[in-house]
Batch of 2 targets.
Target 1
Amino acid sequence: MEVEGEEYFIDLLLYHRKLRCLVAIELKVGDFKPEYAGRCSST
């Protein structure tokens, strides 16, 4: 996915039937850090 000229990679893309929207999920290796919530990162 490309946003403002930067390329991002999505690990999982799901469709939420009740909300009728797409949900993108990025999988991380290691412990969860609070700064991961709501953040996009490129790899």
Target 2
Amino acid sequence: MAQLEQELHEYFTGGRGTFSVAIALRGTPFQLRVWHELRQIPRGVTISYAELAERIGSPAAVRAVGQANRVNPVAIVIPCHRVIAADGSLHGYAGGHAVKRRLLELEGALSSDHPLLAAG
């Protein structure tokens, strides 16, 4: 837990983009593929649900990708907030759109005057 606490502190102060803390994830093989790929998205970068589905080799599974994001057991460490709708809006986030917006702003992926933020 001390390592996780340190890494989260580093993340929120701008010094960490990925986490190295060991996590024992439990999920379906599909969910594990999605969560693994989420960890490959760099800090400050967003991708669409469709792009994530494509990256895991299941381009037709856009809704299933969204569902796997929704049940991500360790948000922030596995950065599901970096996945947005194809039109750039902040679609879906278990922590709420305000939290998703704030995390993306913290990472520099969105500015506070982003035209689609209000639609999120």
